[in-house]
Amino acid sequence: MSHVVVIGGGIGGLTTAAVLARSGLDVTVLEAHVYPGGCAGTFYHQGYRFDSGATLPAGFYPGGPMDIVAQAAGIDRWPVRRDDPAMAVHLPDGTSVTRYTGERRWEERRRAFGPKAEPFWRWQETTSDALWDLALRLPTWPPQTPSEVASLLGDALAWLGDDPRHRLKPMLALDAVRPVAAHLRGASERLRLFVDAQLLIAAQTTGRHTNALSGASALDLPRRGIVHAEGGMGAIAETLVEAVRRNGGQVHYRQEATRISVEHGRPVVVETKKGESFAADVVVANLPPWNVAQLLGEQVPRKLNTLAPRPRNVWGAFMLYVGLDGAAVPSDFPLHHQVVLGEPMGNGNTVFLSLSPAWDEGRAPQGRRTLTMSTHTELDPWWELHEQDREAYEARKQSYMQRVLD
Predict the structure, then answer these.
(1) pLDDT of residue 222
(2) 263-270 contacts: CB < 8 A, separation 24 or more?
(3) Between β-strands 3-7 and 26-30, what pairing exists: parallel, antiparallel or unpaired?
(4) Burial track 230-253 (b if 16+ CB lie within 10 A, e otherwise)
(5) How far apart are CA 124 and CA 128, in angstroms?
(6) In the sheet where 266-272 sits, what is the strand order?
(7) Are 252 and 244 within 8 A, CB to CB?
(8) Which residue stretches of the chain have pLDDT < 70?
(9) 47: exposed, middle or buried (Cβ count in 10 Å: 0-12, 13-18, 19+)
(10) Cβ distance 54 to 39 under 8 Å?
């Protein structure tokens, strides 16, 4: 039996492990932290359960991505409840826009942006429907072999021929090479700002830089349905951990991988900081490429060996976690809010807030609620600060060692 070692217990790694274990493979997950989920995990602090990063789970509708995961991993049900409205967006001019899942969304958008904005929303929803239809056919992506290329072409041709919506296919081809902003020419400043803000949280950048096809799908997040995970986002990862173990696999916490040993171009062992070794015929690294390169050492492939020293021109998130009196939250208050103060976005000019539901009593002490706040922030200044601190630490250590020797 093949031994598969999955490094990293985030959602991607755990999903892979659960599906492979259910297929009969010997699977071991190594997670450096004390809980699963990575940036979609939930941590404990003084009686509260705070989501460490992501707070908007979606895709749990029948036939949707997480439903497909459940079927493949042998999960009977996810610990989630659907919520509508999905969120409220507060713009600098004082306008608040509630993002509803059902038909009420059209009325709300007309109220906020006027009838001239409807062509944009019709393009967005029609394009998103077409792309989700293709995605849920599960085409091989990216194709790696000639047979996979042929299979992908077959899926694409069937997709283009099946649905009358694909009268849009000339526009779909054009949208593959232009940004969302191309559909906002002549739009009101309020609509443009709203779309940019929503893309920032769903696509991690604004309409000028988001491809039109992926942007149309990203903007569809509220319509596809937002859910709340009972116990926090980490409950989704914990459900996957249960599936891995139920399917015969293992999940180990506090096992930080330090080295992947390779022989004849194939992995053979994964070593951990605790000094343990795990035999591996296949290694799945659910990690950033920089971490993978470090684990491979001298065996690193050429593509990973040419990486820049660190990510450049990318966002991170600055998080703030609050425990508050539940009585301060109105009963009809949406649980997610995006506050837009101005541009450029990020670095405090946009803030996303998520409240724990009143019904989820395990998230906080009695009568209390959790509030998670986040803003996008450029990573470069934080990296530079980290490197300065590291250099200062090394200098202090060298000074101390010299005094000891003297």
Answers:
(1) 92
(2) 267/5, 270/5, 270/7, 270/30
(3) parallel
(4) bbbbbbbbbbbbbbbbebebebee
(5) 6
(6) 257-263, 266-272, 277-279
(7) no
(8) 1, 160-170, 397, 400, 404-406
(9) exposed
(10) yes
**CA torsion sign, 304 to 306 to 309 to 314?**
negative
Q: How far apart are CA 13 and CA 11, in angstroms?
A: 6
Task: Residue 40: count other Cβ atoms within 10 Å of its Cβ.
Answer: 23
Residue 270, token pair as written in the block: 């994964």
Residue recorded with tokens 């039109």:
212
The pTM (predicted TM-score) of the whole model is 0.90
CA 240, 242, 243, 249 torsion-angle sign:
positive
Pick from 314, 341, 236, 306: nearest CA to 14:
236
Phi, psi at residue 96, to the nearest 5°? -115, 130
pLDDT score at 167: 56
The mean pLDDT of the chain is: 91
pLDDT given for residue 278 in this prediction: 97
Return the residue matching tokens 């949280």: 201
Question: How far apart are the C-alpha atoms of 51 and 360, rounded to whole Å?
Answer: 13
H or E, element range at 135: helix 118-135
The C-alpha atoms of residue 260 and residue 6 are separated, in whole angstroms, by: 11
Find the helix packing angle between 104-113 and 189-202, rounded to 10°.
130
CA 374 to CA 376: how far, in whole Å? 7
> In terms of Cα–Cα distance, which of 119, 129, 115, 126 is closest to 183?
119
Tell me the pairing of strands 257-263 and 266-272: antiparallel
The answer to whether 27 touches 244, Cβ cutoff 8 Å, is yes
Whole-angstrom distance, CA of residue 73 vs CA of residue 267: 25
**What is the pLDDT, as a whole number, of residue 382?**
86
Q: Contact 249/27 with Cβ under 8 angstroms?
A: yes
- Bridging pattern class, strands 226-229 and 96-99: unpaired
Cis ω on the peptide bond leading into residue 288 (within 30° of 0)?
A: no
Burial environment of residue 350 by CB neighbours within 10 A (0 to 12, 13 to 18, 19 or more): buried
Q: Tabulate helix, strand, coil % of the chain (nearest 5).
A: 45, 25, 35
Whether residue 236 contacts residue 81, with contact meaning beta carbons closer than 8 Å, is answered with: no
Q: How far apart are the first and last CA of the chain?
A: 59
Query: Would you state the pLDDT for residue 406?
Result: 65
CA separation for the pair 33, 55 (Å, rounded):
19
